[in-house]
Amino acid sequence: MAGPRPGLRRDTQETRDRLLAAVGELLAESGPTFGLPELARRGGVATATAYRHFESIHDAHREFLLQLTGRLTDRLQSVPPTWTPRRRFDAACERWAEQAADWGPAAVHIRSWRGFLERVHLGDEPTGALYAALEPIVRDLIEHGELPDQDVEYAVLVWITMFDERVIVDLRESKGWPLQRLARVLGRSVLSALGGTAT
Amino acid sequence: MAGPRPGLRRDTQETRDRLLAAVGELLAESGPTFGLPELARRGGVATATAYRHFESIHDAHREFLLQLTGRLTDRLQSVPPTWTPRRRFDAACERWAEQAADWGPAAVHIRSWRGFLERVHLGDEPTGALYAALEPIVRDLIEHGELPDQDVEYAVLVWITMFDERVIVDLRESKGWPLQRLARVLGRSVLSALGGTAT
């Protein structure tokens, strides 16, 4: 999902990736205050080229969010399903924290105002894919008795809420927690919130 | 804090309140797509009057957020401190859910991108006042042995993260949960996350 777009020539794909990286840099530096001309300058391409890739700056924001949601989903899905449920959960939390620390300072400026479950129910594909990466881990924890039987949708919502990029950036910057500690503490809070005994 | 502004004449204050109510209506209906002229029309005043109250539409958004944060803080602070810590916590969760259900559909469009702790540390007054309303309840729960001793700042962050207006609106609309259930379930998740035995 986070990979190259089908049908794009390789140099076009490279330009697109460079522009999306520039979206992340500019957002992290100064929020959503720039337009396509400034984005083009940062990406080192002509303004007309930026307009060929994105209809508007909002389109560029959306594509940036799509790319990072895809990346996060890929990282979560690559946790080996043969691991024990608890090890899968811990690894997912760690990868999530790493990802969110990377693009969090950019993404906090343009996050969706819609609820996570609402987006899943509306059939929003990247949100659905993220849900589909988390849900089997929660089910596995329940099946192995590490969590009591419960509303899995609510459980995934609690997980995603606690790993909100704004929370991760806040804990890193306000409390100076290193990523590993942050992933461990947040992960334990999630497991406890869901009725598990987080040790 | 959520009361009238000192130094404003009564009719000026009424106009201001009407305009802030109109900000909430327009945001809930269609997000931050309107300007001061449209806000003035909705509030039933001349455009020039709206400009006398707000420098820009962003200023109107900010004042709206200030007003609702103040209201929330007032409601939380009015929970009697003589109640048992657990009763105080439950009442605070219920009032919070009521408040967030009211202005949540508007506020999700304009929430701060800054982390909660960052805003507290920066000396942002309304965020500090909200923190000051929650912190004694957490300390009380710890002193009475309902929660283990812990980092109170992190505990308040968990509480505020789970009661995010986007989560409350999502649970109401996507799962159809009534407010009381929602407050109870989220409150239990918070207590469990913090190591309490939520019964």
Overview of this structure, please?
Two copies of one chain form a homodimer. Chain A has 199 residues and is an all-alpha fold. The first copy, chain A, is 71% helix and 0% strand. Chain A has two domains: 8-54, Arc Repressor Mutant, subunit A (Orthogonal Bundle); 65-193, Tetracycline Repressor, domain 2. Chain A has helices spanning 10-30, 36-43, 47-53, 57-77, 85-107, 116-121, 125-143, 152-162, 165-175, 179-193. Chain A is elongated. Chains A and B meet through helix 6, helix 8, helix 9 and helix 10 of A and helix 6, helix 8, helix 9 and helix 10 of B.
Short summary:
Chains A, B: It comes from Frankia torreyi. The structure is a homodimer of 199-residue chains. Chain A has 199 residues and is mostly helical.
Keywords:
mainly alpha, 71% helix, 199 residues, Arc Repressor Mutant, subunit A, homodimer, Tetracycline Repressor, domain 2
Structural topology:
Two copies of one chain form a homodimer.
Chain A: H1 10-30, H2 36-43, H3 47-53, H4 57-77, H5 85-107, H6 116-121, H7 125-143, H8 152-162, H9 165-175, H10 179-193
Annotation, overall tally of beta strands of chain A: 0
Share in helix of chain A: over 70%
How far apart the termini of chain A lie comes to 34 Å
CATH architecture of the largest domain in chain A: Orthogonal Bundle
**In DSSP terms, counting alpha (H) and pi (I) runs of 4 or more, how many helices of chain A?**
10
Low-confidence stretches of chain A: none
User: Based on CA inertia axes, which overall geometry of chain A fits?
Assistant: elongated
Name the structural class of chain A.
Answer: mainly alpha
Q: What is the class of the largest domain in chain A in the CATH system?
A: Mainly Alpha
Q: What characterizes the major β-sheet of chain A?
A: none
Largest interface, with counts of residues having CB < 8 Å to the other chain, equals: A-B, 34 and 34 residues
What is the radius of gyration of chain A computed over CA atoms, rounded to a whole number of angstroms? 18 Å
Keywords (chains A, B): DNA-binding, Transcription, Transcription regulation
Protein name (chains A, B): Transcriptional regulator, TetR family
Domain HTH tetR-type (chains A, B): 13-72
GO molecular function (chains A, B): DNA-binding transcription factor activity; transcription cis-regulatory region binding
